[in-house]
Amino acid sequence: MRGRMRFRTFVLLTLVTGMMIPGTGKAITDEAIFRNFRFNFINPGGRTLGLAGAFIAAADDATAVQANPAALHYIQKSEFFIEFRSLEIDDQISTSRSGNVDLMNEDLPFLSVTEVSNPEDISNASFISYAHSWRLGSGDRRLSLAFSRQILLEQKTSLSVGGDGSRAEFATSAFPVIVGDGGLERYSVTLVETGGSDTEIIYWNAGGSLQVHNDFSVGLTLSLATLEIQADSQGVLTDPLEQVLPPTNPRLPPTLNADIFRNIIDDTDSDLAYTIGLHWHPDSVFYGGISPWQFGAVLRKGAKFSFQEDRFRDAILEERAPVTLKVPDRYGVGVSYKPLSSPWVFTMDYERVEYSDLLEGFESGVNLLTNEDVTENILNPNETRDPEYDVDDADIFRFGVERLFSVGGGALTLRGGYFNSPDNKIAMTSFSTDARENSVYLDAFSGGEDENHYTAGVSYGKKHSVVDIGADFSSDSQQIVVSYIYRR
Length: 488
Fold this sequence. Notes:
24 strands
């Protein structure tokens, strides 16, 4: 019975680390570094950010190679575009616990988990593009081509804040009472996890549009996507009295009373992705040949990457596991409206992001608690269901408005917008037992929250150049984009 309690304790501690026990991974796992990707899915450009990203129909510059390649037909000759993006994300620290280790009021087992995610601020030249357009024949139809580089994901995350890593503490009634600094104390086993990851996904794009009719164009962008990922996480499970750790397990000094688990990733990969776009500007049906309405639609197929993770226990390599990462597919539609002879423009986009693609081949067996033998035979013999993870697909509506002013022989534009970003963090939704500690496990693997984003922007253009500045503010992040356009 005591041996079973020790093993159960070990299982519970292993779960909350998220990456301690090696398994046979074929896709991303429930490790902390894979549970919350912040992809740069908002369309590029300071103008676009000021409009809350609503640019599928309103696109009219070299960023269209990403926003909607069919809209490249608006480029009259040649255009160069570059943007600089700065992103600040708040630290995320969550603590959850169950039970009470007070000897005078015991409520065991006791489990306490503090999970830390400390993302670094990011500043980079996130999008660069060049586009050129040719007139077809004697009409107004055009053929346009564009080439660009986009940083789709740059994410550096630490599992500690101020030197304190993610931490778990566990005690059971089977553990002895010891004498500590404050008198008698219930013995507990502790686990501290540190480390972090550095992930970058870059899209190298070649796109074009063709006006099949004066009012209608189609576009296609092909992307060579590259991934570079480095991750190194270490968990130290300390058990001086060997209540959990097997006494015969070989260890290295000076950690004879602890097991050290380490997972390392240092790999690259590449894949192909594409974007298909449609753009309809029904000018011919309006008197004067100019339509106040524009409509657009896009389908974006994300890349899929494969890389390798090395998993160690006490400096011994136990497994080299293949891992895959699927960038979510997206599709969207948009509309823009500019009343004739008016300085106002109104834009709206709807986008569907298939975040469930991240769970394609998802492997929960990396954590011992998700192993069927453990969940069925150790934690609760009467319960046979497997733990489940989920992430919701996102429905995102973006709204933007801008107003043009003539200032100093140039064009000054003010913008504002709003969108809601649904939670896209992979979360545990059910567990295999009805034990009272389950709420702690689910909190340790919980999802995030929806975020309301409020955007603002300003631009000034004169002759061949335009400078745009856009800002985005939400409850846990802020970003600023400064972009420059040169037209010939």
